[in-house]
Amino acid sequence: PGSVSAAFQEYLQHLGLQDFPCGLGSWNKSCLNARRSPRAEPAGPEEAVPPGEETPEVLLELLRDRHSPWALPPDCSPQDRLLREVAVLAPELLRGSRVFQAVRSLRILDKGVEEVDEGLLRFQQLEELVLSANHISRVTSAHLPRTLKVLELCCNAVGDLQDLCARPPPELQHLGLGYNWLCGPSQEKHLTADFWPNLVSLDLSYNSLTDLLGLASQLSTLQNLHILVLQGNPLALIPTYRGFLVDSLPKLSILDDIRIRPDEKQQFHGLARQPELIRSEARVVVSIGEMKGLPDPKAFQQLEAGSEGPVITYSYCVTYEF
Questions:
Q1: Has this prediction a pTM greater than 0.70?
Q2: 149, exposed or middle or buried, with CB in 10 Å at 0-12, 13-18, 19+?
Q3: How many C-beta atoms lie closer than 10 Å to residue 73's C-beta?
Q4: In a 3-state reduction of DSSP, which class is residue 201?
Q5: Is the dihedral of CA 223, 224, 227, 228 positive or negative?
Q6: SUPFAM superfamilies of this UniProt entry (predicted)?
């Protein structure tokens, strides 16, 4: 599917919310008249079930028993299980467009999605949107529900944040943009409190950000930021990288998945006021301790003087990719 909406329709088909033992059918048609609520008390033994129908308890057991052919795989999400059980207890709540009101978390991973379309606006209660490992290069904020608190776009092809920051969800607390194509210094201006006033966690790992000084200046406006991931960017090679960020962002609790200790804050105190220590270049020293799988030149037999045999030479090339 090319869009998030198309991928969601595939997701619904996978869940089978309208198929036995979920939904409405000959197996539970009398429940429609009863308008059973998800919080209703279980049917008692005195309540007769018409021939050919099953009680909600029996239908739920078909979903929950791991040996059942209708059971979800063990690695499915809690929301998958919840939606299927609601489809048994109150199938009318998930019919037609009502299903969009029941979804609070939407995870579409590695489904070839290229477009975040306006169909997402139908999810008026959506709080978490995870679209990792797709082919998304552009995100238009006008297509994102205003209720979002978590937006994860890891492993895509996002190279520009301008469209995302035009009118971003105001309550967003986590923004995940790791393993994308962001290049500095043009993108730092989009990472301020003007766009993300409630951001608590930010993942920018494994992009191509290079301007540590400019990025720290913009991130310092995020008063609620406690978790920051920048590893994998060229700026992380700067020798004073961690210390400079720890001192520049005093409210940070975790940097690159490592908790910031109180003694670190004391050790790096004042480093943010010495930008001259930030160098725009880094030196990497690589040492070879041992190589396996190559013939030892010393083991070759030396040709005797005057021998007419062919002379065989060996040479090897070692390549490093950074």
A1: yes
A2: middle
A3: 7
A4: strand
A5: negative
A6: L domain-like
